[in-house]
Amino acid sequence: MTTTRKILLGLGALIVVAYAGLRLVAPPLVEGSMNRQVPHRPYTVPTDAQAVHNTLTVMDWHADTLLWQRDMLDRSDRGQVDLPRLQAGNFALQMFTTVTKTPRGQNYTANDASSDNITLLAVAQGWPMRTWGSLLERALYQGQRLDDYVANSGGALMWVRSRSELQALLAARAGAPDTKPIGALLGTEGAHPLEGNIENIDRLYDAGFRMVGLLHFFDNEIGGSLHGTSKAGLTDFGRAVVRRLNEKEMIIDLSHASEQVAWDVLAITNRPVVMSHTGLKGHCDTPRNFPDDLMKAIAARGGLIGIGFWKAAICDDTPDAIAEALLYGVSLVGADHIALGSDWDGAVQALTAEDVPAITAALLEKGADAQLISKIMGENSVRFLNKWLPKN
Ligand SMILES: [Zn+2]
Question: How far is the C-alpha of 261 from the C-alpha of 240, rounded, in Å?
């Protein structure tokens, strides 16, 4: 062997070892820096509040858990969501959302689409090479991970892709009160994984996706982002996407859409829409939130508003502040249109899925009755899914 070949082989081996090392070391470091937890004292939940919480069917509409390279079936001290912590929080249903592209210097006022943090994240976390250059493959890969979790959970996680799967989940929970399974739903954060091709809606549907967020932090082929540079409405392609999502009975999520996109969607959709994770401007005036009249219009069309658990949405992030935001929502749009939209593993820092009984306790403390609490913690969401998911 020539010296040059030896050197090349040595370098090759070094790269392989370095990459293997990166795959081992990077995920906890990456998630530790990008999905932060702030220390807090344990929230105390009075026994009677816990008893009320245990009777609820709880659903949350937004978690970016699939972005992070850890086994969601095992308890982790990273982020906020895994199966054990969902079980401890008495969750019945969790919507998992796939993040596929985020801009460098991400902010709530103006981002363009020229940069992307997720490419490096995909490489550093050892995602398959097909995901490195394709937003569609990134969404499909995260969907595959959810499918694997369901398959490996021994029945503890169940897919909810249809009304019949929802009914099967609720029956299984009623039949096994000590080991209640949890329903998993799948959605995208932004419709850029369509890569401008309407037929990719079918690819997402076939992979189990039932909710499509139209925008994320930058303007895309569908229209303007709330945090983009144009603040434009729907494009022609965006209008075609809305019609196709209606036909496929997929739920449209307006979180992160520009106000004009939201008004444009409301003008043409024949199904109600969801704001999967948001705050309310009249309660917390930040650039992350839609004005109250737009929220009222969403609710008036039968929509649901998932209230987030982080500071930029609700101005504080204690269980007490979350309860306050939920009750403001009820006063604004009525008790039937408010739901939970945490933004677990994306923006939440001060509580985890197992701390959710503290929100029930805070709602009780503020004088909410059990019927109202039951609606906003999940009953509204179950009713919505029972009407708007595909039948089978
Ligand atoms: Zn988001």
Answer: 13
Using the mean position of ligand 1's atoms as its centre, give its distance from the Cα of residue 25 in Å. Answer: 27
Is the per-residue pLDDT at 14 higher than 80? no
- For 61-97, write each residue's pLDDT tens digit: 999 999 999 999 999 989 999 999 999 999 999 999 9
Domain-located, residue 269: yes
Mean pLDDT for 349-367 is: 96
**pTM reported for the whole predicted model:** 0.94
The pLDDT confidence band at residue 21, using thresholds 50, 70 and 90, is low
- Residue 9 Cα to ligand 1 midpoint, Å, equals 44
**Counted domains in the chain:** 1
Q: What is the CATH number of the domain that holds 264?
A: 3.20.20.140
Domain-located, residue 61: yes
Residue 286 domain-assigned (yes or no): yes
Helix, strand, or coil here: 170? helix
Range of the domain at 53: 35-388
CA distance readout (Å), 358 to 54, 206, 321, 354, 361? 12, 37, 11, 9, 5
Distance 19 CA to ligand 1 centre (A): 30
Q: Report if residue 221 sits inside a domain.
A: yes
* Centroid of ligand 1 to alpha carbon of 256 (angstroms): 7
Q: Determine the Cα–Cα distance for residues 103 and 119; give it in Å rounded to an integer.
A: 11
Q: How far is the CA of 172 from the centre of ligand 1 (A)?
A: 31
Q: Tell me how far the alpha carbon of residue 278 lies from the centroid of ligand 1, in angstroms.
A: 8
Ligand 1 center to 41 CA (angstroms): 27
Helix (H, G, I), strand (E, B) or coil at 227: coil
